[in-house]
Amino acid sequence: MKLFFIALSIATTVCCWGLYGPILHWGQAEMQNSRLRPFMCVGIAYFAIAIVVPLILILAMGLERDAAWTAKGFTWSIMGGVLGAVGALGIIMAFNFGGSPWYVMPLVFGGAPVVNTLFTVWYQNRWSEVSPFFHAGLIMVVVGAATLFASAPRGKQPGPAIEKSGAEQSTPAPTTP
Fold first, then answer.
1. How many distinct structural domains can be found in the chain?
2. φ/ψ bin of 35: left (φ > 0), alpha (ψ from -120 to 50), beta (otherwise)
3. Distance CA 80, CA 65 (A)
4. Is 158 among the domain residues?
5. Per-residue pLDDT of the chain (177 residues; tens, 9 = 90+)
6. Do residues 79 and 33 both lie within one domain?
7. What is this structure's pTM?
């Protein structure tokens, strides 16, 4: 049963993070390509889900009675939150500078596990335990990300605007993000 909940949790994360980029990009487009407004919306969502819900679960349901706040745990967790927020801002800025979810998100989610893995191996000083197959897997991720970036659909660049007389003007077709 424990394995089922682990798999369900991973599947939920994969689905949510997989949808994060395109939906965030649509929100940014609807805000006239604002950089900071969508980022604030991400923060509001994080506040609701990461502050309000745990408070309810801790206070109303009595979860984590045996857990405690510690300075070290608080510091590491805040640092993780800062890195997550900076990463979210990085995604928004990549979209703002013309990046597309077609390649921004796969590059982010292809590159992030490589950084995670290398940092964890370095931090735990476990280089001697890493097999050549492990290195080959990381190299495949990097090659896959580079291939994806090189072959991702880019769309047509808009040409110069052509003025039309009143009778010739038509309503522009809606754009898809």
1. 2
2. alpha
3. 23
4. no
5. 889 999 999 899 888 988 888 899 899 889 998 888 998 999 999 999 999 999 998 888 888 888 888 999 999 999 999 999 999 999 988 888 888 888 888 888 888 888 988 999 999 999 999 899 988 988 888 888 888 778 877 766 544 444 444 444 444 444 555
6. yes
7. 0.71
